[in-house]
Design a protein that fits this description.
The protein has 192 residues and is mainly β. It is built from one helix and 16 strands.
Length: 192
């Protein structure tokens, strides 16, 4: 993919920013008067998505925000002025509903977990059958992954996500029935 950079200076707002466009995704950087980065956002088709970073005037990270594929704030983490973790809210496990698809007896699901700077993430997915028994599991050490699974043998998924940094760890779980995922996929097909 080829990246195109644009620089804009808006004098009446005293705002300088740079846009980087790669395919459909745009990155936007805002700057303080002294040239330090104030914020960095990503957009696809005009909707804020993925990682958003906001900084204190001294350059320390103030906020990390993660927006899902529809532009909804899914997770937020705030930091003290010294850059240390302060608090968090939201979910570590999101699905891109627009990418959920049904084909024959299989469902394809795109899963995303936030990954703030200086952290590592891991996610385990446990597959359950109709009897509620765990059949299998997969582990991922990445923030984005896709699943393809059979609707005939799997009735529920349990996601266990962990976000780790040197002094703190977050743990989140999310359970979703295959029938719920199938309904999302079918509503995607009807809305097109």
């Amino acid at each position: 993919k080829q990246a195109i950079f644009y620089f804009f200076l808006h004098k009446s707002l005293n705002l300088g920013y740079i846009e980087k466009k790669t395919g459909e995704e745009k990155s936007l950087w805002n700057f303080y008067d002294d040239g330090k980065i104030k914020a960095h956002y990503k957009y696809i088709n005009g909707v804020m998505v993925k990682d958003a970073l906001e900084y204190f005037p001294d350059g320390a990270l103030a906020f990390y925000k993660y927006y899902d594929s529809r532009g909804r704030l899914a997770y937020m983490r705030s930091y003290n002025e010294n850059g240390n973790f302060k608090d968090e809210s939201g979910e570590l496990i999101t699905f891109n509903e627009q990418e959920i698809a049904v084909k024959n007896d299989s469902i394809f699901v795109s899963v995303h977990t936030p990954r703030p700077p200086g952290t590592s993430s891991a996610c385990t997915v446990i597959f359950f059958n109709d009897g509620g028994n765990a059949m299998d599991s997969l582990s991922f050490n990445t923030s984005d992954f896709a699943l393809s699974l059979s609707m005939l043998t799997t009735s529920k998924l349990l996601f266990k996500a962990e976000l780790t940094e040197p002094d703190y760890s977050s743990y989140h779980t999310k359970s979703i029935a295959i029938s719920e995922i199938k309904n999302i996929a079918l509503s995607n097909n009807y809305s097109k």
